[in-house]
Amino acid sequence: MRLILAVQSDKVCSPLLQDLAQKGITRILPTRPPHKPELLRDHDYWMQRAITEAGKAQARNEVPIGCVIVRDGKIIARGHNLRETKQDPAGHAELIAIRKAARKLGSWRLIDTTLYVTLEPCTMCMGAIILARIPTVVFGCYDPKGGAAGSLFDLSCDSRLNHRVTLLPNVLESDCSKLLSDFFAELRKRKRSARLT
Ligand SMILES: [Zn+2]
What we know:
By secondary structure, this protein is α/β, with parallel strands linked by helices. Helix content is 41%, strand content 20%. The protein is globular. The termini are far apart. Zinc ion binds next to helix 6.
């Protein structure tokens, strides 16, 4: 007679398996789904990764904005603001990450992805997000001077466009806005001391 044993753990050591096989127990059914820690990570975790990217921009004296694109519980692309370094008006964190993600997936359609960015995307980046068919955008803080996901415009749900984006704002909002306010405060301080010397 074949026996089926349900066990509490999805990790069963091989000596136990051998012992069970000798007893005629051939199948082991886990009583809970396999543990996949990467799928259990929350928005804060991925936004923290985007903040790390923003730090890379800051290290280059760029406005600290960072972005990661996540698919199946993994980062598939990262980007940080490189507008000054590259002298590129399109050198925004989101656009850099979107291009990398498309290269990695071999497709311009970034379906089943989530884009995390520390600052509300601008019109250009929301345009790219829509063109790339990204379904969900999570961002840190609103950009009242240039945001196109609720501040100046909201391109996420314009019925004239053929794609809708689900927005999740204010994730680690204070960390993301402090990054920017500290950067601009430091910039002002440096400019003041440069004027005095
Ligand atoms: Zn942008």
